[in-house]
From TrEMBL:
Its cofactor is (R)-lipoate. One of its GO terms (cellular component) is cytosol. Binds 1 lipoyl cofactor covalently. This is Glycine cleavage system H protein. PANTHER family: GLYCINE CLEAVAGE SYSTEM H PROTEIN, GLYCINE CLEAVAGE SYSTEM H PROTEIN-RELATED.
Length: 121
């Protein structure tokens, strides 16, 4: 698993150029109870730092930015009806979207779990 400074986790799916993206446990804790989520459309082509997801929680709304260049291949539709899953299980059932990425090597520039734990301390 890799992590971004924006508190996203990225998991490479075995043998594929596809990643699953979600909010880290720390990011979910900082956000508070998710009340609403707006997801991208499957097939959307995104560039790094493009806003792709909006999460409203408590009194705040946060834009989640694309961690890498690629195409959205799947979204977690369950979150539309149950956005609280993001808060309850951010690194499991609360995943946000899957995307194919243009450059697998770009993952190497992101933090591993040890570096991320150091970053959030």
């Amino acid at each position: 698993m890799k992590f971004t400074e924006e508190h996203l986790w990225l998991r490479v799916e075995d043998g594929e150029d596809e990643i699953t993206v979600g909010l880290s446990a720390y990011g979910a804790e900082q956000l508070g109870e998710a009340k609403f989520v707006e997801l991208p459309d499957e097939g959307d082509v995104v560039s790094v730092d493009d806003p792709v997801v909006v999460i409203e929680a408590d009194d705040d709304a946060v834009d989640i930015l694309a961690p890498l260049d690629g195409e959205i291949t799947e979204v977690n539709e369950r979150l539309v009806e149950a956005p609280e899953v993001i808060s309850e299980d951010p690194q499991g059932d609360g995943w946000l979207f899957k995307m194919s990425i243009d450059d697998l090597d770009a993952l190497e520039e992101l933090m591993d779990e040890a570096a991320y734990q150091k970053y959030i301390r």
